[in-house]
Amino acid sequence: MPDALQQQTGQQDAPEAMLATLLHLMRRAREAASAASLRFTLVNESHALLSYRQAAFWSCSQGVEALSGVSTVERQAPYVHWLDRWCRQANAAEAGTATLDLRALSGVDEWTGWQEWLPPFLAVIQLPCREGFAGGRLVLAREQPFKAAEVSMLQEWCDAWVQAYAAHQPRSWLHRLRPAPRASSRKRWLVRGGLTLATLVIAALPVRLTVLAPAELVPLEPAIIRAPMDGIIDDVLVSPNQRVDAEQPLFAFDRVSLASRLEVAERSLLTIQAEYRRNAQRALFDAESKSELAVLQSQIAERQVEVEYLRELNQRSQVPAPREGVVLFEDAGELIGRPVVTGERIMVVADEHKTQVEAWVSPADMVSLLAGNEVRLYLAADPVNPVSARISYVAHLAEQRPDGQFAYRVRAQLEPSDAALLPRLGLKGTAKLEGEQVSLIFWIARRPWSALRGWIGL
User: Fold this and answer.
1) CA nearest 174: which of 192, 189, 162?
2) H/E stretch holding 85
3) Residue range 435-452, pLDDT digits in tens
4) For residue 433, what are the CA distances in angstroms to 23, 169, 212, 217?
5) CA within 13 Å, CB half, 39
6) Hey, what long-range contacts does 378-387 have (CB within 8 A, 24 or more apart)?
């Protein structure tokens, strides 16, 4: 009689022990610090709820993620490959929670070779998908069949585990804004409508269409110094960036050949003048000499024009500054000894108090730039203090730059406040040019849409 009472008491205590174990596991899942610890708890600590020899956790997104008795899963192991292939085939067939006797399934192709990896009896628990978790399977294997009560208790534990595991999955901001599954249909439509309306309002916000272009500070209304004649530069009398006064000599040409030509012309003039005087004396009594006087007079006039021209060239051999300012050129050593032709650009004299911004906009970035639009120049030497200007000129045709690229020339005059700061001529940087006012969605999609149209030809 006592033995029968003890056996009956033991049978009553078994469900209570399983229920206490289930509550303990659920608390462990709630207190888990990470998804990795939850996976470890599922395949290892579930043994306290029911006995098994092997356990594996497989997810639809990552495959086999946890195995009992090991800390990490070796993805290239044959057992992992075989188990992952079977779980994917079973998932495609939408098999639910089930207990299997592999001895009866030996003829099925997908179970070929199970004796190498698993005991004969399996319990396959379907893990439903939740927000943040794509779903998966828990596979338990042992030598004895699984009881229905054990599978039912295991299903409850897996449902609680899925809730805890989904809470540990990283979520995007879009998932956080999405209403809960149990929210009412009206609330879901309100949230979706609010998000749509907010997106449309933000997309329609007016913004300024801006482009970036390389730019530099160039002189405003500069005086271009060109070669007044053909010759060789003999000496440069100023240095780069030197301030000069009006009529101050800048450079001089080689006068050796010019002086020789002038001396020859003067001697030729003296010779013709002497011959004219001699014929004029003979013309008093010789009619033939009198007829030659007109020819000699024309030759004298011709030689006089040549002498005056050479004297003027001799005076122009030393080129003066047309006005005061700063003289701009590269290097005096590159000019000395260089042959030049008439009209060739040599240097520039500019007023350092009058500067402007010159930018080069590529054809891909060219937008509607109107006179008066704002320009901000961020100098490479001083990017913290931008220079403000207003567009004054936009070229209609693209020009080829020294680097071989075509670009549109844009000039902008400095604001009065920035003109007083006197930034140095020649400083380079990046200019931000403002165009017309457009919507935010157009500002975002302009370049990608332009590239797409150029690629697909629409």
Assistant:
1) 192
2) helix 78-92
3) 888 888 888 888 788 778
4) 67, 45, 6, 15
5) 23
6) 378/429, 378/430, 378/431, 378/432, 379/217, 379/423, 379/427, 379/428, 379/429, 380/427, 380/428, 380/429, 380/430, 381/427, 381/429, 383/429, 387/217, 387/357, 387/414, 387/418, 387/421, 387/423
d(CA 197, CA 203): 10
Q: pLDDT tens for residues 347-392? A: 989 887 788 899 999 888 888 888 888 999 999 888 888 888 999 9
> What was the pLDDT predicted at 444?
83
Q: Phi and psi dihedrals of 415, rounded to 5?
A: -70, 150
Write down the pTM of the prediction. Answer: 0.51
3 state SS for 165-229: HHHCCCCCHHHHHCCCCCCCHHHHHHHHHHHHHHHHHHHCCEEEEEEEEEEEEEECCCEEEECCC
What local confidence, expressed as pLDDT, does residue 208 receive? 84
Q: Which residue stretches of the chain have pLDDT < 70? A: 1-14, 90-97, 104-113, 170-185, 187-188, 283-291, 418-422, 457-458
Residue-by-residue DSSP string for 22-40: HHHHHHHHHT-SSHHHHHH
